[in-house]
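Intended use. Records such as the Carbohydrate sulfotransferase entry shown here are meant for training and evaluating sequence-to-structure methods. They are not intended to support clinical decisions.
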Amino acid sequence: YYWRHTKETQLSKFNQTEIEAMLGSYTKVLFVRDPFHRLIATFLQGMGSSPSFSSFVQDVLDSGTHNASVAWKPLVSLCLPCLVQYDYVVMFGFHRQELGHLLQRAGLSVGSLLPKFTDTQVLWTYRWLSEQMFSELSAQQKKKLSRFYRWDLSALPFSSSFLSD
């Protein structure tokens, strides 16, 4: 197939037959992160110009899903998990466990290829940060954020998210 040698990387550049052939010939892995954790990371990296987390969240909500930055846009609109049959979904915070399984399934040596992740520390830190940042938000902002990310929360396993009311 000529598409194996093309520089195009977006599926939208190919016709339906080519898309189906490509998706059927690859192992598809989706890396996901709790939407609230994505917001916190974006804010901490200074990608928003807001002075407080609450005002940053308000800017996100005001932007709407169609004008949202890729940094905080709902994952469902970016990677279409309802249309693409992903073989693996790797959750942020469980990289060591899940990547080890993925490498083993691919027949690769887990020990030499897997970097040292500190999943437990990452999960604990984000849990603490989530509690602090969530407490800064108004009840209305919390409700609107849950609605903003409703499709992510229903399509992906974020059951412990602060937004999963």
